[in-house]
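hiii, so i know i said id send this last week but things got crazy w the move. better late than never?? heres the sequnce for the chain we talked about at the cafe, plus the structure i predicted for it. fair warning i was half asleep when i ran it
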Amino acid sequence: MPGLRFRALVEVLMGTAMRISEVLSLDRGQIDFKTAEAKIVGKGGKERVVFFTERALSWVTRYLEARSDENPALFVTGDELRRLKRPDVWRPFARHRQLAGLNKRVTPHLLRHTAATQLLFNGCPVGHIKEILGHERLETTCRYYLGLDHRAAKTAHGQYLTYDTVRENLSDQYQVASVTRDKGLILDQEFVPKLSHEAVCVTAPPVQRGGHREQLDFEISRSVGGAP
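okay and structure toks below
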């Protein structure tokens, strides 16, 4: 039973991103197994809804089926007499860390942090991460998690920090005609800042005007300079 309880606890922490205090205060009757949700009172007495993964609910179900007590608490001590408390949690975390051969300290808060990071790496919008974590302010979520995805930052760096692909980028919407050395015409100053005299002469797609098709030619200044 202790091993099953610990596994269920870990799966709930990983599958909801709840704080350990929120998990330990949870009653089993609060969980709606059909909607995979639970309404809790979180940090600062703020009421919110938390969401469970299917995997987390599966382990909770196995744990509850193995119990024979009537204690309303979701997690109870081995003798099933009282609700599990923080001091009861540290020992099994330390023991399983040693069994796994991990050098890094593993804590319930680290699992919450891991869940949040996984959400971020999988492309979850930061506003949704804020709600899942129960942060009151978006700034808190951004401060701790927005700068963590170094892989995405590196991909973005390679994709967007380039000076030789203006024609390729424009070719999706325009037919590139030639490259000129005169000043040219700014088509959209916000989209293509005029930072040099080198311009790309493009031909816009034909437009319907006054019952006949009209070909519009533009020159768009190429961004190659050093604006801040």
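btw The radius of gyration is 28 Å. thought thatd interest u
miss u guys!!
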